[in-house]
Amino acid sequence: MTNIIIKRERWVDYFKAMLVLAMILGHSIQFFGEESKMLQGLVVRSVNLISFSGFIFAYGYVINKAYFEKGFRNSFRRMMTSGLKILGAYYISSISFIALMENQIFRVDTVLDVVLLKRFAGWSEFLIAFVLFILLSIIFFRFFEKVNQYVLLVLMVVSLLSCFLSYSWITTPRSALILGSYDYITFPVIQYSFWFFLGIFFSRNKKQAEKYLFLLSIIATGSYIIYSFVTKQEPSRFPPSPIYILGGAAILYIFRWLSYQIEYCHLKHEFLRKIIKYLESVGKSSLYYLLISNIMIFGFAQSSFSYRDGRYAIIFYIALMIVSRFIQILSKTT
Known about the structure:
single chain, mainly alpha
């Protein structure tokens, strides 16, 4: 979601692009499709399973390469800039949801509730969670800069164990951002930090990690499928259970593998090269695409253009991506 790579590894951009495209497709189906139908529901559930976890994994990988290896003095300003950009996007997305989806009149106290993190508007919660990951990365920079692989593995286990917290005592919105809650829809930092730590670990121990990631991802996603089949319901998402947090591992493994293949393939066909260039652009501008898509979806969902049909959702999705790219090109040429 952030563009912070100094020596860019393009596979990360392709990986983030796949997450962005999947996430916007999922949102399009949620607002304009028929989620109750099997295939559309499967797409939405799969997207929900991988999107935030995938972005946090990518962030952990990137922040180690771009910041922790460069030192605090060279990184602080750029980290703050990235965090402020995402915070601004969160405010814009949240207020857009309140104004367009909830159709509320302008009130200063409503805006202040958003600004002061007393309420979280729909389909914007992941943005503020991302801001907190950046903030904690700054606060604990020295620790992450020097932490070894064994401590990272312990932290991953602790992160998953935190899913067994008693959430009944977590009743404030700000604490819910960190720890999760029954009362608020959040992506709690402590529980999802598993993917952040994994990203750092993978960045520092890529060859070693490759030996185990495929098998572990199959086990993780297999556990999610078995649980869903046996209980006939998904593992808890809000607050998240360990099975839910790990459930998208195999899909993310496939995304990462595809990203590697794209980075190292040599395409001769001009059309395919343009597609790859488009993917790279989406990955580099992931925050832009997520924000502009949210605003457009919120606006159309409450208009006379809104319609519930799977085919309409796909058409809207394609049109949305085309318009978003067109606006991006215009902003660069004017």
